[in-house]
Amino acid sequence: MKNQQQTTTYTICYHCGEEVTDHVHRLDDKEFCCAGCKGVYQILSENNLCNYYAYNHNPGQRFNHDTRLEYLDEQQIINQLIDYTGKDSSIITFYIPAIHCSSCIWLLEHLYKINQAIFSSRIDFIRKQVTITFSHKEISLRNLVETLIQIGYEPLISLQDVVKEHQKALDKGLILKIAVAGFLMGNVMLFSFPEYFGLSGLEKQFQVLFGWLNLAFSIPAAFYCGKDYFISAITSLKHKHVNLDTPLALIIAVLFLRTAFEIIFNTGPGFADTLTGLVFLLLMGKWLKQRTYNHISFDRDYRSYFPIAVTTLINGLEKPVSINEVKIGDRLWIRNGELLPADAILMKGDAWMDMSFVTGESEPVHKVLGEIIYAGGRQTGEAIELEVIKPVSQSYLTGLWNHDHYKNHVQKQNFNDSIAKYFSLAVFTIAFSATAYWLLQHDSHKAWSAFTAVIIVACPCVLALSTPFTLSAILSVFDKKGFYVKNTDAVEQLAKCDAIVFDKTGTLTTTRNAQVYFNGKLDDHEKKIVASLFRNSAHPLSRHILKELKTGDFFQVKNYQEMLGKGLSATINGSSVYAGSLSSNLKAVDHQPFSGVHVVIDNVYMGNFVIEQEWRPQLNVLIAQLNRSFDVQLLSGDTNKDERHLRTIFPEKNQIRFRQSPHEKLDAISALQDSGRAVMMLGDGLNDAGALKQSDFGIAITDDINNFTPGCDAILKGDSLSLLPNFIGLSKDGIKIIKASFAIATAYNFIGIFYAVQGTLYPLVAAVLMPISTVTIICFTTFATRILARRNKLFT
Question: Which pLDDT value is given to residue 1?
Fold first, then answer.
């Protein structure tokens, strides 16, 4: 009897490389261990991203689920990692080092296709971060991390602020590639010396050996050090567009192929020296750009604090402090309409939080005592007392301010976007035309040199740097003068504005030194009731009246309501109380209408507060300067009691409208835009939130409270209002600097191309000139911005 040998056949999952032990899932003649792996492959296949598998060995490779991520099941750790948790969803931000190209961006922004419990995911490519909104009822944090690891993007999880922790950290992979490229370049140059200085009889015996050694060194230079350029180029072509890496990848490929051909067939020494030198210089340029972008990002997120304060309670007394001074354990007093800057526990009050700043959902969420309320929430009811449990994260607040929910979805194209595409196409056209010309002249050497040199010397990466460098330098100048603009794109919008609309109260006026008078009579009990009402409002008038009432004891407030542009109402100590304008709640009161803030207790008219507001200094000069270049208007929700004084500031040609509701202000902005105007709106960020969001550039004026709105594009300290023409002037000058940078880059490219098309510019020389041009643009934008800032009196 013959012994039968039993053979065991294993099926391997195409995606993760693991053995398929249970049911086999099949798709496109490929086998998968589970529906998850099959689903990921299907998404990649449908979108022509299967080259993902060519560059990732078993990208979905698994790990020991039982031990590696156990800590993510601990609720205490989850609470520290999560940015926000609501009734049905949570938001978390991961730092993912593996993000490196557009394929990564596409895949990570389509996580919802892999798991329906993931609602959305947003990528910050520069910081290598992904912010994920998911259903914590359907997928745990641990399972979410496992999903990311399965598709090849393992997050680096840290309880520290990942941006701050990794902002200065260099990409170790890039540093390693630079080191390898430098080593290869040095050795290739060494073996190429005989070619440079002429071969002696002895050296000719080693010519073939030197050539093969140079070819050997060219392989890792092209396919290890230059790998990212090929990945980026292939991916961009699959998406049917040409990015900045495409011409560079083409050059590396052609240099390698020419070197391999000449060495193998012994027709020449090849171009190994040019190849290794080019790759080394390209990587050094990438390192320089990465360091610069990191500096820009760090500068915006950690040096520039929002000019807002939050009210803390110390022994029951209110004290405003800057949000960067808020510490764990501090008690915060958050009024109606104010933003919570840090995660905190509700200690007192009835919290109805508008979390649209975080989630995009505008429906207020009710919170109970002892519940955690997350940073970014805005109170919509009575004032509440909270205890801080996490420090303020400036990067988180900056991210909220730039949240997609509050962006104008009209596609805005900046100067770079409109130029770079045509510039790249022009470079390719010139390169191929020069090559064709020299081939027709039967001079293949010059054809090759011309093609290589043109693409290298005319690399459009200089254009990619001019805009962020210039505008970021301008943002830095703005910050120092109390003008906080949310991003660089907003600076370009500021430069385009040709109409300016002002609100009056809190914008042209300030309550810092205002005098308050009460026409009527309030006893101590009634004064305490009125003070309890005003204590819950963040409006500048309410806060100033409260200060003048000089009451340190307050009643509990119920059923608090604040109607934008109208007034306040609540039930206090059993009495119904109203404070606001006559026109809204006082129709039944037999009283002649007066300006100011009117008070009604239990339907009995008690009198009105008259506030003699202080006008901001140098308004005459400011409006006169703006009238030279802009259509200036005033929209006030107040009565026309100040019309005579305002006419001394605003000439007759300027339109002034009073008694404007928030909705009417928004309609007025829309009407200006419909007439072709680019509108800048300046308001206090409370009653004007809708108009600020509708405008092309919205500025929230602030003195000492966090009354800015997520819909605004900038926050301006009240003391800096007189510098508005200077800010606008510098933004316009910034666009001129960008165009001048483009002109310098174009002139440089024309000169370089002039010699390159003739085949007289050696490719390695072109590779040296390319980073020099980058440094030139950096220096030009930096110094030009400083000079123009001085000219606009914004830099000392």
Answer: 42
pTM, full prediction: 0.67
Residue owning tokens 């050997």:
216
What percent of the chain is predicted at pLDDT more than 70? 76
Residues 6+ apart with CB under 8 A from 387: 329, 330, 331, 332, 344, 345, 347
Token pair of 177 as six digits: 């590639």
- Cβ atoms 150, 16 nearer than 8 A: yes
3-state helix, strand, coil in the chain (%, to 5): 50, 20, 35
100 touches 231 (CB < 8 A): yes
Q: In three state form, how does the secondary structure of 627-639 look?
A: HCCCEEEEECCCC
Contacts by residues 641-644 (CB-CB < 8 Å, ≥ 24 positions apart): 641/595, 642/504
Count other Cβ atoms within 10 Å, centred on residue 121. Answer: 18
Segment 652-702, tens digit of pLDDT: 888 999 888 888 888 999 999 999 999 999 987 666 778 888 899 999 888
Least confident of 152-156, 245-249, 268-272, 303-307: 303-307
Using CA atoms, how far residue 555 sits from 141, 398, 432, 527, in Å, is: 43, 36, 81, 11
What CA–CA distance (Å, rounded) separates 675 from 666?
15
Contacts of 693 (CB under 8 A, 6+ apart): 406, 709, 711, 712
**Which pLDDT does position 410 carry in this prediction?**
41
H-assigned helices in 221-309 = 227-238, 245-264, 272-298
Tokens of 734: 């910034």
CA–CA gap between residue 330 and residue 389 (Å, rounded): 8
**Geometric angle at alpha carbon 63, from 62 and 64, rounded to 5°:** 140
Residue type, 558: K
The rounded distance, in Å, linking the Cα atoms of 15 and 150 is: 9
More confident: 114 or 199: 114
Reference 234, options 248, 221, 246, 220; nearest CA is: 246
User: What is the C-alpha to C-alpha distance for residues 175 and 445, in angstroms, rounded to an integer?
Assistant: 34
Band (pLDDT 50/70/90 cuts) for residue 424 is low
In whole angstroms, give the CA distance from residue 701 to residue 717: 6
Greatest extent of the chain over all pairs of C-alpha atoms, in Å:
119
Which DSSP category does 25 fall into? Answer: E
Rounded alpha-carbon distances, angstroms, from residue 190 to 203, 210, 213: 13, 9, 11
Contacts of 129 (CB under 8 A, 6+ apart): 93, 94, 95, 96, 123, 162, 163
**Long-range contacts of the stretch 484-488 (C-beta < 8 A, 24+):** 484/304, 484/306, 484/307, 484/714, 484/715, 484/716, 485/713, 485/714, 486/398, 486/401, 486/402, 486/712, 486/713, 486/714, 487/402
Pull the structure tokens for residue 191: 């073996």
For residue 430, give every residue at least 6 positions away whose Cβ sits within 8 Å of its Cβ, in sequence order, or none. 454, 458, 753, 757
Token pair for 677? 């105007």
Hey, which residues does 352 pair with through a beta bridge? 366
Residue 794 has pLDDT above 80, yes or no: yes
Q: How many CA atoms lie within 13 A of 52 on its CB side?
A: 31
* 135: region left, alpha or beta (phi > 0 left; psi from -120 to 50 alpha): beta
CB proximity list for 116: less than 8 A, separation 6 or greater = 138
Residues 373, 357: Cα–Cα separation, whole Å:
13
Residues whose CB is less than 8 angstroms from the CB of residue 462 and which lie 6 or more positions away in sequence, other chains included: 741, 745, 748, 773, 774, 777
Most trustworthy range by pLDDT among 213-217, 252-256, 509-513: 213-217
DSSP-derived secondary structure letter, 525: H
Q: Is 453 exposed, middle or buried (0-12, 13-18, 19+ CB in 10 A)?
A: buried
In degrees, to the nearest 5, what angle opens at C-alpha 494 toward C-alphas 493 and 499?
105
